[in-house]
Amino acid sequence: MKSFFEGIQWLFENILFALHDVLRSEELVNWWIANIISWGFMAICCYYTWYWIKQLKLHKDNDDEYQDTTAHSFLK
After folding, report:
1. Cα–Cα distance between 44 and 37 in angstroms, integer?
2. DSSP states along 3-31
3. Whole-prediction pTM value?
4. Second label for 68, Cα 20 to 30 Å away, from 6, 11, 20, 48?
5. What are the distances in angstroms from CA 58 to CA 29, 53, 55, 61, 67?
6. According to the per-residue pLDDT averaged within each range, which of 10-19, 21-30, 42-51 is highest?
7. Each residue of 32-59: pLDDT tens digit?
8. Residue 64 is inside which H or E element, if any?
9. CB 33 within 8 A of CB 26
10. Other CB atoms within 10 Å distance of the CB of residue 26
11. Phi, psi angle pair for 31, to nearest 5°
Protein backbone atom coordinates (compact mmCIF):
# COMPACT_ATOMS: atom_id res chain seq x y z
CA MET A 1 0.00 0.00 0.00
CA LYS A 2 2.89 2.34 0.75
CA SER A 3 4.31 1.90 -2.75
CA PHE A 4 0.95 2.89 -4.26
CA PHE A 5 1.01 6.25 -2.50
CA GLU A 6 4.69 6.73 -3.31
CA GLY A 7 3.80 6.11 -6.96
CA ILE A 8 1.15 8.83 -6.78
CA GLN A 9 3.70 11.13 -5.15
CA TRP A 10 6.23 10.44 -7.90
CA LEU A 11 3.61 11.07 -10.61
CA PHE A 12 2.63 14.45 -9.24
CA GLU A 13 6.12 15.65 -8.27
CA ASN A 14 7.98 14.53 -11.38
CA ILE A 15 5.39 14.66 -14.15
CA LEU A 16 2.29 16.74 -13.41
CA PHE A 17 3.94 19.59 -11.50
CA ALA A 18 7.08 19.83 -13.65
CA LEU A 19 5.83 22.99 -15.38
CA HIS A 20 5.15 24.59 -12.01
CA ASP A 21 8.70 23.84 -10.88
CA VAL A 22 10.10 25.44 -14.03
CA LEU A 23 7.96 28.54 -13.57
CA ARG A 24 8.90 28.76 -9.88
CA SER A 25 12.62 28.66 -10.71
CA GLU A 26 12.08 31.23 -13.47
CA GLU A 27 10.54 33.72 -11.01
CA LEU A 28 13.93 34.96 -9.82
CA VAL A 29 15.05 35.58 -13.40
CA ASN A 30 11.98 37.02 -15.11
CA TRP A 31 8.76 37.82 -13.26
CA TRP A 32 6.67 38.18 -16.45
CA ILE A 33 7.50 34.71 -17.74
CA ALA A 34 6.93 33.17 -14.31
CA ASN A 35 3.41 34.61 -14.21
CA ILE A 36 2.42 33.86 -17.82
CA ILE A 37 -0.18 31.29 -16.73
CA SER A 38 -1.81 33.81 -14.39
CA TRP A 39 -1.89 36.41 -17.18
CA GLY A 40 -3.44 33.81 -19.48
CA PHE A 41 -6.19 32.99 -17.00
CA MET A 42 -6.86 36.69 -16.45
CA ALA A 43 -7.16 37.24 -20.20
CA ILE A 44 -9.55 34.30 -20.54
CA CYS A 45 -11.71 35.58 -17.67
CA CYS A 46 -11.77 39.10 -19.14
CA TYR A 47 -12.83 37.78 -22.54
CA TYR A 48 -15.65 35.63 -21.19
CA THR A 49 -16.85 38.40 -18.88
CA TRP A 50 -17.00 40.72 -21.89
CA TYR A 51 -18.82 38.02 -23.91
CA TRP A 52 -21.33 37.43 -21.10
CA ILE A 53 -22.09 41.15 -20.77
CA LYS A 54 -22.48 41.40 -24.55
CA GLN A 55 -24.99 38.54 -24.53
CA LEU A 56 -26.92 40.12 -21.66
CA LYS A 57 -27.14 43.36 -23.64
CA LEU A 58 -28.36 41.51 -26.74
CA HIS A 59 -31.12 39.80 -24.76
CA LYS A 60 -32.10 43.07 -23.12
CA ASP A 61 -32.23 44.89 -26.47
CA ASN A 62 -34.44 42.14 -27.96
CA ASP A 63 -36.75 42.07 -24.90
CA ASP A 64 -36.10 38.34 -24.52
CA GLU A 65 -35.97 38.49 -20.75
CA TYR A 66 -38.93 37.32 -18.75
CA GLN A 67 -38.81 39.36 -15.56
CA ASP A 68 -42.18 38.54 -14.04
CA THR A 69 -41.72 38.12 -10.30
CA THR A 70 -44.42 35.44 -10.23
CA ALA A 71 -42.34 33.16 -12.44
CA HIS A 72 -41.37 31.19 -9.34
CA SER A 73 -43.80 30.05 -6.73
CA PHE A 74 -41.51 31.02 -3.85
CA LEU A 75 -41.60 34.69 -4.93
CA LYS A 76 -45.36 35.03 -4.46
Report:
1. 11
2. HHHHHHHHIIIIIITHHHHHHHHHTTT-H
3. 0.57
4. 48
5. 46, 9, 5, 5, 15
6. 42-51
7. 888 888 899 999 999 999 999 999 899 8
8. none
9. yes
10. 15
11. -65, -35
